[in-house]
Amino acid sequence: xxxxxxxxxxxxxxxxxxxxxxxxxxxxxPVLSENPLYNQKTGIFxxxxxxxELRGCIGHIMGHIPLKEALFEMAEAAAFSDPRFPPLSRxxxxxxxxxxxxxxxLIPVDSxxxxxxxxxxxVLKQGFRQAVFLPQVAPEQGWDxxxxxxxxxxxxxxxxxxxxDKNTEFFVFTADVFSEEDDHA
Length: 185
Known about the structure:
There is one protein chain. With 185 residues, the protein is α+β, with helices and mostly antiparallel strands. The protein has two domains: 5-103, Glycoprotein, Type 4 Pilin (2-Layer Sandwich); 107-173, Dna Ligase, domain 1, CATH 3.30.1490. Helix content is 26%, strand content 25%. The chain has four helices and eight strands. It has helices spanning 5-22, 67-80, 137-141, 145-155, and strands spanning 44-50, 53-60, 96-103, 107-109, 121-126, 129-133, 169-173, 175-179. A hairpin with a 2-residue loop joins β5 and β6. It is globular. It starts with a helix and ends in a 6-residue tail after the last strand. 31% of the residues are buried.
């Protein structure tokens, strides 16, 4: 899904307005325009940062509901249901920066050599355990492929070297990532 500048701006503003509405700051629930793109089912993550630090991040890897619904569902979840953080408070909203990641389809890969940190997001799956990193995570953390996959293994609740196990499956995806901090969003 290719998003132009106007669409990115509308999505970012809608998330901010929605959080303002959910926090009781605004009485108006935002509504997206009638753009046909918003009816597409796509993976999406909404990430919140406060002072350049992660403050919440929740998403769907694969699209199972239209973007126009998933956007608000993930915004609410990132703000109020990320188990790593307390729910967002009214006085924090002004300090929050919003980032949205629209994901491509998942593509299975048969070798970790095909995973490109910074370009690919990665899903690691072994049995009933799985974890995901968005494409921007490895460069933000300064990780190479092995470091990224070690952290991804641990995020899935597996041993650090589980990514080397022949029973571990990998799927990659790309993402259109944009935020309020971007000049080009």
